[in-house]
Amino acid sequence: MQGRISRTQSPETTVHTYTAPEDGWMVNTHIIELPEEVMVVDAQYTLVYAQEVVDFVRTRGKPISRLCITHYHPDHLLGAAAFSAPIFALHEVAAKIAAVGDRVASEEHDKRGDIIPAHALRAEHFIEPGEQLIGGVRFWFSRLRHAETADALVIGLPDSNILITQDLIYNKVHAFVGERAFDSWISALSSYETLPYDRILPGHGLPGGKELFAGMRRYLTTAQNAYELSSEPAELRRRMIDAYPDFAGEVLLDHMMRFLFPRRESRSPH
Question: What pLDDT score was predicted for residue 11?
């Protein structure tokens, strides 16, 4: 296995987190092991790493009852073709995938070849915000607005004190800030930090505790200042690497430059 598996354990359930290698953008897929089934959160960027997730789930001896896609970005969506499971998303996320998913897939396929599908699978089942009992386990679904992207799903396991934030938080991985929603993203971090969860499963990098909220706020403040001071992509890239020399995910810095400097880079959907 090229990716890394971390485990977050509670008496009620176990969540296995698969973290892709650098060329898979260090993106996380969370595998929620319920008594008789498995729920998977996000599908990976490449089919290679998505298949590693599928192979790991097979070792658990339980079927995947649903694949939840938290938002439309390619690293969370495009590996869905490796799964044989119903795809669930918020209404707003499903609509975004339907509108731009194929365009995103085509662009990434052109860059990476057949390890990326040329078309994006659509979500055909909808997640409603609020509490829901699945497989005997209590879930809390929340619609995150205007953070890394306009709409995204956050998932809580209230009885296990586990919060799956996905791209609300990156842990020691450079974040995609191409939508420049610095202020509302920082505000969302402060809001979710008040919730009674102390085990945090981010969208990129390893699981951690509530300290990840403060770390992400500092990163966003640094990124906003660096962006305002930079006149070109190379300068912003250098500033962020100098500020966080031990962070992974430099590929994400490169990926976002066309959004932050649209006059210098051809703009296309993330």
Answer: 87
Q: Is residue 111 part of a domain?
A: yes
Amino acid at 235: E
**CA–CA distance, 189 with 212 (Å, rounded to integer):** 10
Domain total for the chain?
1
Query: What domain range includes position 226?
Result: 4-260
Residue at 268 is within a domain: no
DSSP characters over 179-206: T--HHHHHHHHHHHHTSS--EEEEEES-
Residue 150 and residue 179 in contact, taking contact as beta carbons nearer than 8 Å: yes
What's the gap between Cα 82 and its chain centre?
Answer: 17
Residue 182 lies in a domain: yes
Token readout for 45 is 């960027």
Of 135, 192, 126, the C-alpha closest to 159 is 135
Q: Token pair of 112, please? A: 């990476």
pLDDT, one tens digit per residue, over 157-167 is: 999 999 999 99
Residue 21 domain flag: yes
Q: Classify residue 175 by its DSSP letter.
A: -
CATH number for 92: 3.60.15.10
Distance CA 228, CA 5 (A): 37
Is the CB of residue 81 less than 8 Å from the CB of residue 50?
Answer: yes
Per the document, the length of the chain is 270
Q: Give the amino acid at 200.
A: I
